[in-house]
Automatic annotation (TrEMBL):
Pfam families: Big_9, Cadherin_5. GO terms for molecular function: calcium ion binding. GO terms for cellular component: membrane. Gene3D superfamilies: Immunoglobulins. Residues 428-513 form the Cadherin domain. CDD domains: Cadherin_repeat (cd11304). This is Cadherin domain-containing protein. One of its GO terms (biological process) is homophilic cell adhesion via plasma membrane adhesion molecules.
Length: 740
């Protein structure tokens, strides 16, 4: 960037010479003419005289209020004055070309800033910069304004508070003082800050005019609103009742009383906190009815209402207890089985509402014995006896009242006896052979029919029972120890069971081998196959795997993992025989498999090329060497990772051509193929840099005004992107040049 700065007030023509040089010492030069034209200088407002006015009072601004300098003209001759709107004055108007009047905005005080400028009347550069003229505006106090007051309503005997609001342009709302008054002596007024509270006298209803006032200490504002006090109903008062007493099972009637200052009709209600006492109200008569046999404490709540308000009292009613006889209510019968016992809790069958200590006794029993522990009764029958007896149970509270008794039938049911199996000793059979044994059982109940059943603890041994014959059949090749459980059941559905062990003795089985039709792998390769999937021995004996019949194929066997490999470069077919032996004296198992080795093409190989080098703008051609053991016809290809270097091939001749002025490093990838397989190498080509001279763009004639510097951008190109240094020399002392 070239900056040309004419001397102060200079104008005319100057010749400028510009030179550009790169860091290799090469350069280029050009000349151009700079023309500096004369221009008018704008006036400058350098200050003002002190100005002041009163709030909301107009003031006139004249030329003499401003201090102005103009090197080309005499101020204020031929000048005009302009005032701009700043928003802080409400009106302004021109008095003449040399004065303007303004009025400060409503309530504005302090320093009023007025933007102004002057114009010297010339065609160009005639207007000064905008100057902020300051006018001191003296404050005048304004009256506060009280906010809107709406009419208010409150209930009898209830105070009401409202918040008073006021505005004052000269004072903060916290600096204002509020006051209030009432035109009715039955309503008092008080203030705390700006909160106005109105309190009606007790039982007063009607209206009052309330006046509120606000002052800033100098000026005041006030307002009046209507307060209406609405009458409300007064609650009735219930006459005192106090604690009451009545005997158990005896009603109590009370007369209720109440007063109401409003003389309205009253209504009574009552409730009890327990279901043991029922309350009934008819007019002012309250009837308290204890439930049958209830005694104790009940809280009775009585309420009187005028249909708007209520009055309530809760009193204690004591119901005095009276002794009652006990009671007993048994079910029709109890039933239990022969030779067993029955325990029953009689608590649910006997009672005494007085909760006296009761004694339980029994009579009428012959074949059934009774044990009584408090209210827990145990029934036992004579051995093997069954039938029905009617027993009488009696309870006594020892309070001199009648005893309570109830009869009940005790039924003892006959019981069937279970059959008993005769123990079965452990049994044994050989693998793959079934075994049948005879089952027997004893039943004390003569004439009962018995049925036998059996289960095995494993699915590997099946069981079948026909009458009393149990047949056990092991699965093919199964051996081991099995638990057999036998059951016997009579026609009363009672049963017995026993378990015994069946041992199935193992018998050795020959191994097996089943191979696929063939295995295939590639020339110079190998194949690993797990023969576990092809061989088997149901006895899980340790097997030995061997092979025969191989000539060009070598076999390695590691337990059951078989590795196939062929002689180098050989391919073809061989039939091999694999054998497994469990070494237990049974037949050895054989199977044949065809092993196929397929031919494979060999990959060509590039001979190492290594890094290459050439100068900028110079092509390079090299010969590509490669070898192929199959003597196939070879095809070469090449590519560059940078478009700035173009590669081409002619047979095995590789030519690398850098673009004009390009230098740097490029990765060249060469590939050789026999039509099926490929080999490749990537090498680095270094293109060495050669320095080129920079070229400076032409600069035409330039024009600027007097006293105005001129900046232009200097441009040059260098294909090497070297750091360029610009120089500029003027012909003559009237223009200075700076290169940035």
């Amino acid at each position: 960037q070239l900056t040309m700065d004419p001397a102060q007030d200079f104008h005319g023509d100057v010749t400028i010479t510009v030179t550009v040089t790169d860091d290799g010492g090469l350069s280029d030069t050009t000349d151009f003419v700079l023309n500096v034209d004369p221009v008018n200088d704008a006036p400058v407002i350098i200050g003002q005289v002190e100005l002041e006015t009163i709030e909301e009072t107009s003031i006139t601004i004249v030329f003499s209020d401003l201090l102005v300098e103009d090197v080309d003209n005499d101020y204020p001759e031929g000048f005009t004055l302009t005032v701009l709107d700043s928003g802080d004055f409400s009106d302004f108007y021109s008095v003449g070309i040399d004065s303007v009047s303004i009025i400060p905005g409503l309530d504005f005080n302090g320093t009023l800033v007025v933007p102004v400028y002057v114009n010297d009347g010339e065609e160009d550069y005639s207007q000064s910069d905008i100057f902020d003229l300051e006018i001191a505006v003296t404050n005048l106090n304004d009256s506060p304004i009280l906010g809107f007051l709406s009419n208010q309503v409150t209930n009898e005997d209830t105070a009401i508070s409202i918040i008073l609001f006021a505005t004052d342009v000269d004072n903060d709302s916290t600096d204002l003082i509020f006051s209030g008054s009432s035109d009715n002596e039955n309503v008092s007024v008080s203030l705390e800050g700006n909160q106005l509270t109105m309190t009606p006298d007790l039982n007063f209803t009607g209206s009052a005019n309330i006046t509120a006032e606000v002052t800033d200490g100098q000026f005041t504002d006030s307002g009046t609103f209507l307060l209406t006090v609405v009458p409300i109903n007064d609650p009735p008062e219930l006459g005192a009742i106090g604690p009451q007493v009545t005997p158990e099972d005896t009603d109590l009637i009370l007369i209720l009383s109440a007063t109401d200052v409003d003389n309205t009709e009253l209504y009574f209600e009552a409730s009890s906190d327990t279901s043991g006492v029922i309350t009934t109200v008819e007019g002012d008569l309250l009837t308290l009815s204890p439930a049958i046999n209830f005694n104790g404490i009940a809280n009775i709540t009585v309420t009187v209402s005028d249909l708007f308000y209520t009055s309530t009292e809760t009193f204690v009613l004591t119901v005095i207890p009276v002794n009652d006889p006990p009671n007993i209510d048994l079910p029709e019968s109890f039933t239990f089985a022969e030779d067993s016992t029955l325990v029953e809790d009689f608590t649910d069958y006997i009672g005494d509402i007085d909760e006296d200590d009761l004694t339980l006794t029994v009579s009428g029993n012959e074949n059934i014995t009774i044990s009584i522990d408090s209210f827990e009764v145990t029934f036992r029958s004579a051995e093997n006896w069954n039938g029905v007896e009617t027993l009488t149970f009696t309870v006594n509270d020892h309070q001199g009242r009648d005893l309570a008794s109830d009869d009940i039938d005790i039924i003892v049911l006959p019981v069937n006896d279970q059959p008993v199996l005769v123990d079965i000793d452990p049994q044994e059979t050989d693998e793959d052979n079934s075994l049948t044994i005879t089952l027997s059982a004893i039943d004390p109940d003569e004439g009962d029919e018995v049925t036998f059943g059996a289960v095995s603890d494993t699915d590997a041994v099946g069981v079948l029972v026909i009458d009393n014959q149990l047949t056990m059949t092991p699965d093919l090749n199964f051996n081991g120890i099995v638990t057999i459980t036998v059951t016997v059941t009579d026609n009363g559905n009672l049963s017995d069971e026993t378990s015994f062990l069946l041992t199935v003795t193992p018998v050795n089985d020959p191994p097996t081998i089943t191979l696929p039709a063939s295995f295939t792998f590639a020339e110079d390769g190998s194949l690993i196959d797990d023969f576990t999937q092809y061989i088997n021995d149901v006895d899980e004996n340790e097997l030995i795997l061997t092979v025969s019949g191989n000539e060009n194929i070598t076999i390695s066997i590691d337990v059951y993992e078989v590795t196939f490999e062929a002689v180098g470069d050989w391919y073809g077919e061989e039939t091999l025989t694999f054998m497994v032996n469990d070494s237990e004296g049974r037949d050895i198992a054989f199977d044949d498999v065809l092993v196929i080795v397929t031919p494979v093409n060999d990959m060509p190989e590039l001979v190492e090329i290594g890094p290459q080098e050439t100068d900028e703008d110079i092509s390079l051609t090299i010969t590509l060497p490669a070898e192929d053991v199959d003597n196939s016809e070879l095809i070469f290809s090449a590519e560059s990772d940078n478009e700035s270097v173009i590669v081409s091939l002619s047979g095995d001749q590789l030519t690398m051509l850098p673009e004009q002025n390009y230098n740097g490093f490029v990765n060249i990838t060469v590939t050789v193929s026999d039509g099926f397989l490929t080999d490749f190498e990537t090498f680095e080509l270094s293109v060495n840099a050669v320095n080129d001279a920079p070229i400076l763009y032409e600069i035409g004639a330039q024009l600027t005004d007097e006293d105005i510097p001129l900046e232009i951008i200097l441009s040059a190109v260098d294909v090497d992107e070297d750091l360029l240094i610009f120089e500029a020399t003027p012909f003559g002392p009237d223009v200075s040049t700076v290169i940035n």
